[in-house]
Amino acid sequence: MSPEFKIAFRFLVSKKRAMSMSLAGIACGVAFFILTQAQTSGFERFYIDTILGTTGAIQVHDRFQDTLRTMDAAGRERSGFRIAHREARQYVEGVEEPARVGAAIREFTNVSGVSEVVSGSARLRTPVRERSVRVYGIRLEDHLAVTELARQIVRGDLPGFRGSPQGVLIGSELARRMQLQVGDSFELDTPDQSRRYRVSAVYETGVRDIDEARIFLHLGEARSLLRRPFGASFLQVSLRDPGRAVQDAARIETVAGHFAYSWQERERAWIEVFRALRVSSGLTVATIILISGLGMFNMLAMIVMEKTREIAILRSMGYRRQDIRRIFLWQGAVVLAAGTILGWLLGALLTFGVSRIPIRIRGIFATDYFVVNWAWSHYIVAFLIAAAVVFVAAWIPARRAARLEPGEVIRNSAA
């Protein structure tokens, strides 16, 4: 243990109350920063997982043909320079050859599953009420590979759907509004025909727009109901690394010649909202650390004023300016280390406690508890913010203390 550290510790002990206030402020600031980041990033991560488990990482829609526009290059006529841009494409609705396109997509190393979907509008009718719905025809095994549908079943079971050609999967909100239970029958009307189906299971994704309007049928039955014997409305694709969805969507467009829509593009608005909330909460909580840093600056400035004689004696004994500066930086380091460790422990405890608080959320996702994200990055960022504030708060008094001249201090004291 260096002499500078021992002296720094003794100076701190002489200001126990002020040191405790600064220590508590740093610890609380670090803890609350960790807590708010765990909450906001937790809900963001949960929302993304819900979207990936419901609508997939990529959706491949309409076939396109680029429209080329001729432009003059460097003012020359007939340069032959042409560009193709996404907005100028001509689209042909749907996927005409889903088997061929799906096989090409499966060749991508990051692709873990592809599900062919035929969708269309229908009217769900019971003896007492009716409602517009969206019919989705799927191959169950393929769709289970690209979604979390198996985990989203809340009543009934998938084997019942698998073994019933006239069975359907219905959203929980739609079932509630139409007063349908597993085993109940209803009719689906299209402009061309009306057919009777039976509820095999009820699912809940937590996304209200899906749970109140989407019905899953077997692919063959949906083709017959919607009069679409060929093609598909879109292909739903799951990825091993969803973070690469934008790049993979661009490659799929090039290879398959169909418009590919990544989850980042589909959910851009909500993702930006979550990120803005995370930054806003982080900046708000960081003010606690800043205020604690101001208190620490005041404490060290007072120590410099009260310990001028001791500093002069140390200089007379041979301590250099950098040694004096190091003494005050050590004080900041002690408060930083203790405050960070306490803040980490308190932050982990608060995060665990909040994750056990019951809360019912239904809308853009479904959860019955606060969702938190345990990430080391939150702890590291909290430490870096505290370190920056403490360093500035300690450096200014340390620099002032190092500039004191022993002779001048002694003369002033004698006078």
Which runs of at least 5 residues are low in confidence (pLDDT < 50)? 67-84
Indicate the proportion of strand residues. Answer: 15-25%
| Shape, principal axes of CA atoms | elongated
Number of domains: 2
Biggest sheet statistics? 6 strands, mixed, barrel
Helix/strand/pairing class, anyone? alpha+beta
For the termini, the CA-CA separation is 37 Å
Helix content: 55-70%
Mean pLDDT: 83
Write a concise keyword list for the protein shown above.
415 residues, six-stranded mixed β-barrel, 55% helix, elongated, Barwin-like endoglucanases, 22% strand, 16 helices, alpha+beta, two-stranded antiparallel ribbon, 2 domains
Task: List the SSEs and their pairings.
Blueprint: H1 3-13, H2 16-55, E1 58-65, E2 68-71, E3 81-84, E4 90-92, H3 98-106, E5 111-125, E6 130-138, H4 140-146, H5 149-152, E7 153-156, H6 158-162, E8 167-171, H7 172-178, E9 185-189, E10 194-203, H8 208-211, E11 214-218, H9 219-226, E12 234-239, H10 245-256, E13 258-262, H11 263-266, H12 268-306, H13 308-316, H14 321-355, E14 358-361, E15 367-369, H15 376-402, H16 406-414
Parallel strand pairs: 6-11, 8-10
Antiparallel strand pairs: 1-4, 1-12, 1-13, 2-3, 5-6, 5-9, 5-12, 7-10, 8-11, 9-10, 14-15
Walk me through this protein's architecture.
The radius of gyration is 33 Å and the shape is elongated. The protein contains 16 helices and 15 strands. The relative contact order is 0.19. It has helices at residues 3-13, 16-55, 98-106, 140-146, 149-152, 158-162, 172-178, 208-211, 219-226, 245-256, 263-266, 268-306, 308-316, 321-355, 376-402, 406-414, and strands spanning 58-65, 68-71, 81-84, 90-92, 111-125, 130-138, 153-156, 167-171, 185-189, 194-203, 214-218, 234-239, 258-262, 358-361, 367-369. By secondary structure, it is an alpha+beta fold. The strands form three sheets. A six-stranded mixed barrel has the order 5-6-11-8-10-9, surrounded by four helices. The chain has two domains: 3-53 and 270-414, no CATH class; 111-239, Beta Barrel (Barwin-like endoglucanases). Helix 1 (3-13) crosses helix 14 and helix 12 (268-306) runs parallel beside helix 15 (376-402). 55% of the residues lie in helices and 22% in strands. The two termini are 37 Å apart.
